[in-house]
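Risk register update: the risk of archive-format incompatibility is retired. Evidence:
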Amino acid sequence: MEVNELKQSLIEQKANLQFFLETLIKQRRAIIENNVQLLEESVAAEERLLSRIHNLEQSSKEAIKTLVRTYGLKVQNYSLSMLLKAAAAKSEIKLDDLLELKENIQILVNEISRANEHNRILVNHARSFVRETINALVNDKNAPLLDRKF
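Archived output:
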């Protein structure tokens, strides 16, 4: 039964990660188009998804702990990778479905990392642009607008 619970948790995790990737892509579009409303919506969605992802991780970890105890596996930590590695050593435990899900989740995590990096670069460029614009305004009038000492 625990294998099915873990599998269901991983399927939900995969779906939430896909939604998270789509949210990051929406954020990128919002940043590029200077669409504040879309950016706020995507940030709110990101926060909800991060909470769901965290809860599913905890659920998966509990299912992994139960499986490790049930099958008497020796693992260094309660991760899916460790479970699969330990289960591979025992031929009576078949977790091939979980291995495929793990690989799909890892691909999604890599895509999320790339999308997050792209968004970080865009935000840094936007900050730089704002900084340069402020400096141009300040230096043009020889009267600093910011950092005045009173």
